[in-house]
Design a protein that fits this description.
It is a single chain. The protein is α/β, with parallel strands linked by helices and 345 residues long. It contains six helices and 17 strands. A hairpin with a 5-residue loop joins strand 9 (118-125) and strand 10 (131-137). Helix 5 crosses helix 6 (318-330).
Length: 345
């Protein structure tokens, strides 16, 4: 393949369909079921997902946890307001960050947060204009971040989040994400318990979601797009559960594009998922990709021309996906992070 055009993944979304707030009950969002073989569409409620999962299938969940990574501070010398978004921990006190406004935060600049509870120095300019920043504090960094930081909601969400736990899954465990694996937000403890008791295997993997996944594709030819690296872990137990499911003829069903990218990154040429105690992946999945492990996907509705709608199109076909999206718009589905869900079977 020499060319894949960004414009071919465009659709018109009315702004009022961008979900600004999570639903009162996680599992009562709408669920669109898309048959990737036929293109047939069924409309359900998310908690009905248990009817589509069979004993012997494996549900793969990303147990990363979003940290309150958005810090608002002032320049030490001028008092000018600045914003820093933690992306990736490089060492104990050094992070790669997105900063605003960039022109005020050159190497050597110093920033103060929380009236001096936390301080920072800009060390150098990194890839894509990000900054390497060293933080100074007394005590435990995570506790200070919990006091001063805000959840890093995507820019299309303009409402203030009342309960920061709603931007994490109920099974979130390992700190490190700058954005939530949002397909998992629909699950409740009760629903997961029912699914497990029905004989569905559960495998937890970890991929710390960076903002690279959500960066707009700037290249007209998608094949020229550069994906950012994200850190992932697959435990021996998770790899064994997934591999035994495949061997026994069960389906591997990823909850979210991050779980999908994790297992596809960890798979060898024979489709066996290999355990890893921490690697980075920049896997880019778009139409033409041959899935090694994934059979089905639970996902939300993604931005036009994004790498995520390209991944979904790789699984179900671009025309079927865009047709499903247009039907979702006609039926007033809620889109993006706090929006409704799709099951591609």
């Amino acid at each position: 393949m020499k060319e894949l055009l960004k414009k071919d993944f465009w659709y018109d979304l009315p702004e009022e369909l961008i979900a600004q707030d999570p639903l009162l009950k996680r599992d009562e969002s709408k669920l669109m079921v898309l048959d990737k073989s036929t293109g047939d569409i069924t409309h359900r409620v998310f908690k009905d997902i248990r009817e589509y999962l069979n004993s012997g299938d494996c549900l793969v969940l990303n147990n990363t946890k979003v940290i309150p990574a958005r810090l608002l501070g002032v320049k030490e010398d001028t008092g000018a307001g600045v914003e820093i978004l933690l992306l990736k921990r490089k060492s104990d006190d050094t992070w790669e960050c997105i900063v605003r406004p960039g022109k005020k935060l050159r190497p050597g600049a110093r920033v103060v947060f929380g009236e001096g509870l936390l301080k920072a120095e800009i060390l150098e300019i990194a890839e894509e204009g990000n900054r390497l920043i060293r933080f100074e504090y007394e005590g435990i960094f995570e506790e200070i971040l919990d006091r001063l930081g805000e959840m890093p909601l995507p820019p299309y969400i303009t409402h203030k989040l009342k309960d920061r736990d709603r931007y994490n899954t109920i099974y979130a465990k390992f700190d490190g994400s700058a954005a939530a694996p949002t397909a998992g937000l629909h699950f409740t403890s009760e629903l997961l318990k029912e699914i497990s008791e029905a004989g569905v295997n559960i495998a937890y993997v970890t991929l710390h979601v960076g903002l690279g996944t959500f960066r707009p594709v700037k290249e007209d030819n998608v094949l020229n797009h550069h994906m950012h690296k994200e850190y992932y872990v697959v435990t021996p137990d998770a790899a064994q559960t997934i591999n035994e499911t495949k061997a026994a003829g069960g389906r591997v069903i990823a909850v979210g594009t991050t779980s999908c990218r994790t297992i596809e990154s960890a798979a060898d040429e024979n489709g066996m998922v290999c355990p890893t105690d921490g690697r980075e992946t920049d896997i880019f999945i778009y139409p033409g990709y041959r899935f090694k492990v994934l059979d089905c996907l639970i996902t939300n509705f993604h931005l036009p021309e994004s790498t995520l709608i390209m991944l979904v199109s790789a699984l179900a076909g671009r025309e079927k996906v865009l047709n499903a999206y247009n039907e979702a718009i006609a039926r007033k589905y809620r889109f993006f992070s706090f929006g409704d869900a799709m099951f591609i079977k």
